[in-house]
Amino acid sequence: MAVRWITGAQVRQLLDMDSCIAAMRRVMVQTSRGEVIVPPRSALRLASGDLFALMPGAMNRDTGAEPELFGIKLISLFHDNPAAGLPSHLGLVVLFEGEHGQPTAILGAAEVTAIRTAAASALATDVLARPNTPVLALLGTGDQAISHLAALARVRQFNEIRIWGRAPEKVEAFIAAHRASAPGLRPVATVREAVAKADVVCTLTGAGEPILRGAWLAPGCHVNLVGASQPARAEADAEVVTRTRFFVDYRQSAFDEAGELLMAIEAGLITRDHVCGELGEVIAGEVPGRRDERDITVYKSLGFAAQDLAACDLVARRAAAQDIGVMLEL
Prior knowledge:
Blueprint: E1 2-6, H1 8-14, H2 17-32, E2 36-37, E3 42-45, E4 51-59, E5 69-77, E6 89-96, E7 103-108, H3 109-128, E8 135-139, H4 143-152, E9 160-164, H5 168-178, E10 185-187, H6 191-195, E11 200-203, E12 222-225, H7 238-242, E13 245-248, H8 251-257, H9 259-266, E14 275-278, H10 279-283, E15 297-300, H11 305-322, E16 326-329
Parallel strand pairs: 1-7, 8-9, 8-11, 9-10, 11-12, 12-15, 13-14, 13-15
Antiparallel strand pairs: 1-16, 2-4, 3-4, 4-5, 5-6, 6-7
């Protein structure tokens, strides 16, 4: 029995953004229809305060003609890693086939996470944002900012892309690295300046306390809340939740882990009914998304195992077809 080892660099080679956005569209609808099995992720808090998480799941492949695919993502979350030049999320995804339960592929999780997270945000932007969105604000300068810059360009055209980060030198380095592919990039000094009259806002930081205020958002704006993924952490204040049409990727994980949402509920400002729906329900036409030009919409991204499985299945199939990766005997 052999398993295919696919490196992070090979993941990036095989997983193009357009294909990943399409895969996220399919799996989000499957999730909202109850066609996937996604147990709550479990996390071990280390002595350092960092996390080691396990994300199992199972899903049917697109054709429905093959046995279900299942697997697990094993990932560490170390918030200080970017200062050491490393992604905050590191780990592995292991895929199994559904006929005999054999492991088939092992993939680098950091690259999968970066690409599929941005692809889901791009999908949410395509579904919820206004058609004309000239101004984008990216809050953060790490791996997710890089992948979101690429992903959002697949669904909207931006004339101005504002970049904010805590370290001005990192903002300048980010702009210098991506100016050729995104000529509208410009640095801003504050979050408030970044989001003023912005059409799309993405929070992509490791912030544990809110950096984004709801009072700063312009009517008609769309927000992707991406960085915070623990109940006690939030990138946005309660007003970002309460004054918006609030959508999630997966209800169960949102009510377990979405800090912005949970804090607003615990403060008595809203109830669970404030969640308008899952993104998959909007895509399937089961729940209305944006109702008019002045709606402020939010997509709260936490990520869940079925997204990883859909992306990894795509990569593994392409790797097998092109004989990419190393076969390891078990």
